[in-house]
Amino acid sequence: MNLLDLERIDPAALAKSFPPDFRWGVATSAAQIEGAAFEDGKGASIWDHFCRQPGRIKDGSNIDVACDHYHRFREDVALMKGLGLDCYRFSFAWPRVQPLGQGAWNEAGFAFYDRLIDSLLEAGIQPHATLYHWDLPQALDEQLGGWLSRDVVARFADYAAEVARRFGSRLASIATHNEPWCTATLGYETAQFAPGHTSRAESLQVAHHLMLSHGDAVAAMRAVTKAPLGIVLNHTPSFPATPNEADRRAARIDDGLNVRWYMDPIFRGAYPADALEHVGADAPRIAAGDLERIRQPLDFLGINFYTRSLFGADGKTVKGPGKRGFTDMGWEIVPEVFAQHLVRLAREYNPPPMFITENGMANADSVVAGPQPHVPDVERIAYLSAHLQALSTAMSLGADVRGYFYWSLLDNFEWNSGYDKRFGLVHVDYRTLERLPKDSARWYRDFIAEHRARR
Ligand code: FCB
């Protein structure tokens, strides 16, 4: 039997293959949708700053307004209710609630999240929060050197404890970091993301501080909340471009730097020896006791999956064959790898229950005008259904996954790509900020309704 028959997906049968208590959601992040960048006392973030540096963002845009979710969140919650979602993953903007990243709290900022959480609960949607989705208070970068400074670890733990103390009883989960690999590598090594540095040694030191801040934040939050606590990691599984030993080694090293560099300290209490040897003098400074602090028991593991990487012998990535095509980001569509990777995680790490905290595609969507304007995003429906089929298969092979969050609810600010890449189930017209559910939103709504019919 072909467990992953992606050619003939029957949405009704697929929906019924998920356990009755499986949860369906969408994900967003503060910097990408909120706007109101300098309103009600919010401090600047490193992304507010980065967007203002010429050449950093492809379309020269910024996040001053973004999707204006800060003012339109009620409409957005109503959209989610219309889709029948069980849950919603969003992030707190640290500089909105603590403008300088230390010292005074901003009550007006907390009040926004209070209103958001209340309206989600009223709509019957469980709020899942992330504390750090890349928008570090700019003041911490200027005054302390951002994540390069070990002092930021304690600042983050304080912030985490304050959010947990105020909101923990109303949150379905709290994740410390979103994708620490991206914060460290894209922010400090490749300069694609804020703050735009170009040093591998810095990036690995930052990664260590992120890990330490994760562990310390979990410990600090445990003292004040019973909310389930975890972390969100992005996994882009690495494969050799050919069966040659050199390509295999390059893929293995990348797996060490991308997957195991984060999984191993969290779940095994050590950095992977092969990757550590490979980075040589760029290895981070690790103080006595750090690895024990990082390895905190977790209630869940969030996995973000989009694509894979293929490696040639020189350690550079090679474009895959794209049997199922590529997304508008140029990312190869590989649902089989999604299934395989989840099974690998279950077997190699025996992690706590997993959530797919992000999965989705950018597509060159456009609105078809007429009496009933619509967005016929058949590519996204194909991507979504193939990945859900893969997820169902992985679960039947032993991966303990409890929920799925599509990335993203809305088209939004896709970091250094600006507003050009559309990931949403809901189209956003950036001139009017009008929201229009795409065909994929209806597909997801009907899929969730099918699943619910069996509960
Ligand atoms: C992930 C990010 C998310 C979004 C998607 C496309 O790496 O967590 O904010 O940009 O990619």
Question: Could you write a compact summary of the structure shown?
Answer:
The protein has helices at residues 11-16, 30-33, 46-51, 69-83, 94-97, 107-122, 138-144, 151-167, 180-188, 200-222, 245-268, 273-279, 290-294, 335-349, 378-396, 439-453, and strands at residues 23-27, 87-91, 126-132, 173-178, 229-234, 238-240, 300-304, 309-311, 317-318, 354-358, 401-407, 426-429, 434-437. It is an alpha/beta fold and 455 residues long.
Could you walk me through the main structural features you see in this protein, from its secondary elements to its overall organization?
By secondary structure, this protein is of the alpha/beta class. Helix content is 42%, strand content 14%. It has helices at residues 11-16, 30-33, 46-51, 69-83, 94-97, 107-122, 138-144, 151-167, 180-188, 200-222, 245-268, 273-279, 290-294, 335-349, 378-396, 439-453; strands spanning 23-27, 87-91, 126-132, 173-178, 229-234, 238-240, 300-304, 309-311, 317-318, 354-358, 401-407, 426-429, 434-437. Strands 1-2-3-4-5-7-10-11 form an 8-stranded parallel barrel, surrounded by 6 helices. Strands 6-8-9 form a 3-stranded mixed beta sheet, with helices on one face. A hairpin with a 5-residue loop joins strand 8 and strand 9 (317-318). The relative contact order is 0.15. The mean pLDDT is 97. The chain binds beta-D-fucopyranose. Beta-D-fucopyranose (FCB) is lined by residues 29, 32, 178-179, 182, 234, 304, 358, 407, 414-415, 423.
